[in-house]
Amino acid sequence: MALNATTAPLMVTDHHYYPLEVEIANYLANEWSVPVLLGIFAAVCAAIVCGTVVIIDKTHPNLPKGEKAAIWWFVISGAIHLFFEGYFSLNHTRMGPAQDLFGQLWKEYAFSDSRYLTSDPFVLCMETVTAFTWGPLCFVVAFFITNSHPLRHPLQIIVCVGQIYGLILYYATSMFDHYYAQITYSRPEFLYFWGYYFFMNFIWMVFPGILLVSSVRKIAKTFQALDRLTANGKANGHAKKTI
């Protein structure tokens, strides 16, 4: 036997993920209960949002409420992208036996999409782009909002379009396999399909959609105002020449 030979992973099919015959490398059931996992995740998210609220209220008390809400969203969104989804990107080959917090959270979520336990190429690529592109850019947009940076709205449009586009592809690839290949990745229970798979992801359709429309309107109004100023300037110049 070669000295550098590696042990092949144990492919496990004794699990409750869909499709039931899918093989998961070195799979171990979660050690923590669902309420504990979801409670910790919710508490961490709440702490991030509350911390952001306190900091923004102290450092930028005069910002409009809508701008503050946008900052809160981009901070929590960036944190989830960079740290939670980044964890998956970096550890996708060892998700099956993982027993740390993020690993168990991903295994719980995988009841709604088992592709997260099989290093699915699309999911891995999509999550990697989301984690290491949209994640950091979310924090940049949040910072740009605080100082009214001129690149805030262009960058906000890019991030929001990227998030929405990724979500559409995420839904579409799963639905394609479901209807055309008869492969179902989600368990049928309401919590998993409608709670985890649909609702928890659809949030990234709603808020980015609202912010995208807001930025497009802002840029459109700016160009309208610029066009009026340009037209008035030309008219005044023509009038002076006539006089």
UniProtKB/TrEMBL annotation:
UniProt-listed PROSITE patterns: EXPERA (PS51751)
Gene Ontology MF terms in the entry: C-8 sterol isomerase activity; cholestenol delta-isomerase activity; steroid Delta-isomerase activity
Keywords: Isomerase, Lipid biosynthesis, Lipid metabolism, Membrane, Steroid biosynthesis, Steroid metabolism, Sterol biosynthesis, Sterol metabolism, Transmembrane, Transmembrane helix
Pfam family, one: EBP
Cellular compartments annotated: Membrane
TM spans (from-to): 36-57, 69-90, 121-145, 157-173, 193-213
InterPro entries registered for this protein in UniProt: EBP, EXPERA
All copies of domain EXPERA, residue ranges: 66-212
Domain of life: Eukaryota
Membrane topology: Multi-pass membrane protein
Keyword Lipid biosynthesis on entry: yes
GO annotations of cellular component type: endoplasmic reticulum; membrane
Single biological process term from Gene Ontology: sterol biosynthetic process
UniProt similarity note: Belongs to the EBP family.
Protein name in the entry: EBDP2, emopamil-binding protein
Species: Hyaloscypha hepaticicola
Phylogenetic placement of the source organism: Eukaryota, Fungi, Dikarya, Ascomycota, Pezizomycotina
